[in-house]
Amino acid sequence: MTARLEVTNLRKDFEGLMAVFDVSFSVEAREIVSLIGPNGAGKTTIFNMISGILPSTGGTIQYGENELGGLKPHAISALGLARTFQNLRLFGNMTALENVMIGRHGRSDASVFGTAFRLPSARRQERAMREAAMRQLEKVGLAGKADSNALSLPFGQQRLLEIARALATEPSLLLLDEAGSGLNRPEKEELDRLIREIRDSGVAILLVEHDIPFVTALSDRIVVLEHGMKIADGTPAEIRSDERVIAAYLGEDIRDLC
Amino acid sequence: MKKLRIGPNLAGVIILAVVLALFGAIDIIRPFGLRFSDLSGRVVTIDTMIRIGILTIVVVGLNLLMGYAGQVSLGQAGFYALGAYASGILATLASRHGMLVGVADTWWWPWLAILIGMILTGLFAFLVGKPILRLKGNYLAMATLGLGFIISILSGQLSTLTGGYDGLTGIPRLRIGEFALWPAQRYYFLVWGAAIAVIVVALNIVHSRIGRALRAIHTNETAANTSGVDTEHYKVLALVISAMLASLAGSLYAHFQSAVSPSPFGFKASVELVTMAAVGGLSSIWGAPLGVAVMFILSNLLQSQIEAVFHIRGGEYELIIYGLVLVLIMIFMPQGAISSLGAWRRNARREKEGAA
After folding, report:
1. Tens digit of pLDDT for each residue in B141-163?
2. What is the ipTM of this complex?
3. Assigned domain for A86 exists
4. What is the domain extent for residue B27?
5. pTM
6. For labeling, which of A178, B144, B281, B332 is most exposed (least CB within 10 Å)?
7. Tens digit of pLDDT for each residue in A198-212?
8. CA–CA min distance A258, chain B (Å)
9. Residues in B 177-216 with any Cβ partner in A closer than 8 A
């Protein structure tokens, strides 16, 4: 099931400091949209509000039929939104497979009673969770690392593991917070391929990214933020020739960056 | 294709059950006139073993709450007290108050009372858990500490119900029909049967989606929450389970002593429980019986030595030992004794292989 994300006049006021001011944008089903902008533009704050970690101080976030404002993160996850974190948040006391199995948590419902007495239904669910998690690991190419501790993996693979954990929740919209940062060139090419593959499987994608060439090659649309406000919204070609965007990047000619 | 295989946990449960059953049988069969306490030079008696079993049940719950879910409780003795008083009050309804005669004096009533105590204690934990578990770290520790104090004070003050600071006496022994689970040699089997059942249930929970969710909350609550885990629900759930286990243990204690009073359930008891859990290893269900046994026997030995050497009686010097052990464990073995010993053994083996 896919749906449309509609963010309208979203605001975040940190005790007088306007981190996000009346930002509106949308992500259609099966679309790849990127949020770009200089540090402090409010990109991650917007992610945190969409995924329910931070309450907004104004505006609405509509996903399909549902208003996300006031929902807890796990409820938002159940509606089909998943995210990764800029500073990886893996579970260091678990294996790679167990990390992904946490993503399956909301898609199963074995009770305390069922698990405490190892009832057949609970055991069947546990097996199904394990298999589904394994499929996600295969998708990101980490099947061979299933039993390794999550934090023993190299950095690039930890990024992929977070994506696998997010995919395990069966999202229809995936939020990737700087999934490419800290990756080398071949790893980024691999990530580009993976993101397209995820999109082709029917998942819309919202990216926060710093790497402009990476973003322009991948995105259907780009939303540019500066000081918490939206200054441009359009196709990569439109963004490249936008005067305000050029000015926002400190006089750097964005055409050179692309 | 997965065949039915005996994992280390199942093997551990079977070994523990067989060893404990053999120990228990010694006191009943009395081979060559031997008693159980003779095995340890009269240091460990059947009485000690029963207390270790009862506390194991509390500490398993504390491990789930602190070790797995990462939520501190310095008031666990409060839940332990609730169970003891629930059994103490309900089981003496007929004899003390002349209430429910014909029901409250049957053999099955005390068993029902144990269940009622667990349900009420669980309900209480659910109600206080909602607001209290929003707190983190030191604040949660302070709040649970306060909770423990409140229960301890109320159990002394509500004297019409609880018998005040003198406590309740005349709590009947448990029976199954006409078969009394007493003397202690018989009660031993009940307590350890319950303790082993609790260990099995806890191991099952830990190795399921629920245990995984608790561990995820412990490591990174935000990531657990965005990955679909209802973190608030599972923190409360861990508290409720640990409270219900403490209540079960409290009931077993009440029927063992045949009396309850406020003094064994104070702040001191909560600190002892946390120390036992830490010695065994906070995120290790198997650490629970080990931690309890080590601390219980150690402090008993020290108490008797202090009394013998310094000719002083009745002092609570064992609390010094608990404090000292807790500090040392936290500095040198933060993972607890079991996992630290395991790590040392692995290191030693590696060095040996490296040298060869």
Report:
1. 999 999 999 999 999 999 999 99
2. 0.93
3. no
4. 15-44
5. 0.92
6. B332
7. 999 999 999 999 888
8. 34
9. 201, 204-205, 208-213, 215-216
